[in-house]
Every structure is written in C-alpha cells, then in structure tokens.
Amino acid sequence: MFLSKKYLLPLLCFVVGTKFSVAQLSPNKTLFTRADTLRGSNGIYRQQWDVLHYDITVQPDYTAKTIVGKCDMQFFDQGAKMMQIDLQQPMILDSVKEGDSHFTFTRENNVYWLIYRDTSSNLMYKIKPGIRLLTFYFHGKPREAIRAPWDGGWIWKKDKNNNPWMSVACQGLGASVWYPCKDIQSDKPDSGATLRMIVPDSLVAVGNGRLTEKKSFGNGNTIYTWTVKNSINNYCIIPYIGKYVHFSEKYAGLKGNLDMDYWVLDYNLEKAKKQ
C-alpha cells in the first residue's frame, strides 16, 4: 500500500518530531568521576585555608622537556587538618616543609593529600592558626601542549632562528599542570605572586608584573625574578623563555607617566617598535 503525497509529509514531520522530543527528554548524561569532583569543587580540604602569595622557582630542561622547582605558598590557616594540594600527573611532589618540619602526604590521581595537623601526634597542637608558609619541592615532565592553547600544557618550541622557546598554556587545564597549588579559581593569591626562572645565559625569561632581579650564577645559568603585587589567577602566572630583547617608553596617563615595557623575540624588534 502506498501513501499519497498529502499524507507523507505530515507523517514524516510526526516521526522526526517524536524522535526530537525523545532526544530532548532523554539526553545523554555526562558521568563525572571523583577526580572531576576533586578538580572542580570547593571541597572541605580546600575550605580552611586561603592562599595569600605564591613564590615559584622553576628551572626547565629544554632537551629533556622536564622541569624542577620549588613553590613557597603563603596562606591564612584557619585550622586545617588536611589540605588538598593539586599537582597533575605525571608531575611529582618530592617534599613539603615548614621551617624544619616535614609533612607527610599521599597521592590520589592529580591530588596530593597533605596531613597538616596530625591528630595522632602533638604536631597538631604546635601549629597555631594564622599566616603560615609551606614550601613544596617538585619535579617531572609536565604534560606537553601539542596544539596550544586549546589542549594546554608546557610548550617546548623553537623560534624561526632555531632557538629554544618555552612557555605554558593552562587556562582551561589549570595551573597544577606544572606547579603545586590550590587550583580553584575562587582562591586567587591575595598578595600576588613571584616567579623566578633559572635559564641558560643565552636565553631571557619574562614573567608577569615587573622584573625585580636578574642574577647570573656564573655557571652558565641566570635567574630572572618577576613580581606581581596584586591578586592574580593561578593560570595567569606564566613563564616566557626565549631570545627576548627589551625596549620601553613612557605613556602619559591621567595621573602621571606610566612605564611601558615590551619584550619581543630579537628578530621582531624593529617591527615591534613600529607597531
């Protein structure tokens, strides 16, 4: 039996509409894992301490695509017994110190559980609430960004003159892809951040804020220290390492002159000045 054309179109619309309605009523549900919950939620082990300042030192090895570093994290402690420290695999947390005290920790995927106040010892009672400072030592081969910035990770490239160029893209992935931190956007470091980069003398390291120190170690390496005094998102603390050169000018602002500093790859200097 064949349907006439006048019945075929309404029937087709009915079938399509029915399928569309079923699709709307029964969407595919995304299954969230415990790792997703730890990454995106302000869990109880993130709630009793507030980050004030990060002081990060990092030394990259361009050939091996590895980094080694230290992160001094100043925070206001409200009595935290355990702290969720984020550091994504395959990065490794080596040790955690506060002065002469060493702290124990365990790993769960991309999270380290730091026992800050050990209820089984008197250490719990020795740590008074207030402003504290923990030092994290870490190393590893961070996830590499294959197609930055969309996939995220550490970037190991060469400029057009075949010189090493390194940076990080981590806005979506999170700053914990390369350094230990409290990786949730609701807790910016209130007093900003310091980024120290140890690089070969042939390269220049550029960071956020102002260049506050440049010091040669006399062994082929130089450390560059950059400082931000205002609050900043974790993922905005970014190293830029390459054959950079610097030029500057003054901008007449409403309340006085403003410093304008530019860092560009050496072969772009004249083009950058013109722009």
How would you portray this structure in words?
By secondary structure, the protein is mainly beta. It has four helices and 17 strands. Strand 6 (105-108) and strand 7 form a beta hairpin. Mean pLDDT is 90; it is low at 18-26.
Describe this structure in a few short sentences:
The chain is mainly beta. It has four helices and 17 strands. The chain has helices at residues 5-25, 34-40, 123-126, 269-274, and strands at residues 49-61, 66-77, 82-86, 92-98, 101-102, 105-108, 111-115, 130-140, 153-158, 164-169, 193-200, 204-206, 210-216, 221-228, 240-242, 244-253, 256-265.
The tally of helices reads 4
Indicate the low-confidence ranges by residue numbers. 18-26
* Strand coverage percent: 35-45%
Taken in chain order, the helices and strands follow as HHEEEEEEEHEEEEEEEEEEH
How far apart are the termini? 74 Å
| Count of β-strands | 17
Question: Strand order across the biggest sheet?
Answer: 5-4-8-2-1-11-14-13
The largest pleated sheet is described as: 8 strands, mixed
Fraction of residues in helix? 10-25%
Principal-axis shape: globular
Query: Structural class per helix/strand content?
Result: mainly beta
Overall pLDDT: 90
| Cα-atom radius of gyration | 25 Å
